[in-house]
Specification:
- The chain is mostly helical and 395 residues long.
- The protein folds into 2 domains: 1-184, Up-down Bundle (Growth Hormone, Chain: A), CATH 1.20.1250; 194-377, Growth Hormone, Chain: A (Up-down Bundle), CATH 1.20.1250.
- The chain is built from 19 helices and no strands.
């Protein structure tokens, strides 16, 4: 890679870290916001799904928009919009005002991802999966940092001063304004079919990939959402629960980072499939044990669960090279969002059989995702015709 391309990957990965730190502000502040605005549990429960819709489920729309019209605007201004509105949630004096901050902040978060993933892919003509792993893992690190950062600010300055954290997104926007490259639109040629036709040509493998991501995401979000209840019932304090969850998130990011390197060496399909088969026994064992052994198994299971996160994005981009932003949005946003919206199933199971048993049962899903990856084509499966720079998928 040339120095300019390395700088592009580094810049966008840093921006991803900053941006995703804002996306995890809301959950630790929910109790304080509910107390301040006199919200019922049902009203407070609307906030997370609302952010999920605007930040994740709408990513395919953002991807199509950036593929057709906007060459770098979403990458540059996404962190600014997310920072201004999400960091202002402490200023909200009513539920509608709070919902507005969540919706607009979610738009800023979601709009950044598709175009930036496409820019990283374009800069990574070699070792594309490794570079995408760096980009993806940076976001995971940001998600782990976010709760620590916002709770520290609120604890020291008060909820009404949560907007102090906006400075990081503002500075990141300035850097992106000066240094973020342009996502040039490919010149149309007479024999190149539209994106819809390209997607239709590879609908079968793309669907396998999509549902594998949905199943894995459902497990990851379920653990993040309901593990605190299980840990609390075991007698852990709030700070201890936070450490366990942070380790789970951080080790997931580590798994994604090394997953890209392994995929470049041994093949994307193979690494994705094997990691999805290894994760369930580790996670199930973590819920069957206690103490440090349990936490170590949980972190290790999270590592393998997230190995395929950046790999699957690159696999989708290789299927449809002419719509990198769109398919990145499908895998990074829409599939993740659908998986997250399936997590209440775990909550319903927990009400019947308890959190430990419910989490144990839900951890079977990565096995099904691994079976879907086993069905994924071993050889090249691209929409034709494909641009010259598209890489053949090795396995």
């Amino acid at each position: 890679m040339e120095r300019h391309d390395k700088f592009t990957v580094t810049l966008l990965s840093t921006a991803h870290c900053v941006l995703d730190s804002y996306s995890s502000f809301l959950m630790p502040l929910l109790p304080l916001l509910a107390l301040k605005l006199h919200l019922t549990p049902a009203q407070a429960g609307l906030l997370i799904p609302t952010m999920m819709i605007t930040s994740s489920l709408m990513q395919p729309f953002y991807g199509m928009l950036s593929d057709r019209y906007l060459k770098r605007s979403m990458s540059v201004f996404g962190p600014l919009v997310a920072a201004v509105f999400i960091s202002s949630i402490g200023l909200a004096n009513s539920l509608p005002a709070l919902m507005a901050c969540v919706i607009l902040g979610g738009i800023g978060t979601g709009s950044f991802h598709p175009q930036s993933a496409a820019l990283v892919s374009r800069a990574s003509t070699q070792q594309r999966t490794t570079m995408m792993s760096i980009f993806s893992s940076a976001g995971t690190v940001g998600m782990a940092i976010g709760p620590v950062m916002i709770t520290a600010v609120v604890a020291n300055f008060g909820l009404e001063h949560s907007y102090y954290t906006a400075i990081f997104g503002i500075l990141m926007c300035v850097l992106l304004w000066y240094y973020c490259p342009t996502l040039e639109t490919r010149q149309a040629v007479s024999d190149t079919p539209p994106l819809r036709t390209l997607l239709r040509a590879v609908w079968a493998p793309l669907l396998l990939l999509y549902f594998a991501v949905v199943l894995r995401s459902a497990v990851h979000v379920s653990i993040q959402t309901y593990l605190p209840f299980e840990l609390a019932s075991s007698g852990l304090q709030l700070t201890e629960i936070g450490r366990v969850l942070s380790c789970f998130i951080l080790f997931g990011g580590i798994g994604g980072f090394f997953g890209g390197t392994m995929a470049d060496r041994w093949g994307a399909r193979r690494v994705s499939m094997i990691s999805l088969f290894i994760a369930p026994p580790l996670l199930i064992a973590s819920f069957a044990t206690h103490g440090l052994v349990s936490y170590a198994l949980l972190a290790l299971g999270g590592t393998f669960l997230n190995v395929a996160v950046p790999i699957n994005v690159v696999m989708a981009q290789r299927l449809v090279p002419g719509g990198a932003s769109t398919v990145s949005a499908i895998m990074m946003g829409f599939a993740w969002g659908v998986g997250a919206l399936l997590s209440p199933i775990t909550g319903a199971l927990s009400a019947r059989i308890g959190f430990t048993r419910a989490l144990t049962m839900i951890c079977i899903l990565p096995v099904l995702a691994g079976v879907l990856m086993w069905r994924f084509p071993k050889g090249e499966a691209q929409a034709k015709p494909a641009p010259r720079e598209a890489l053949a998928m090795g396995d």
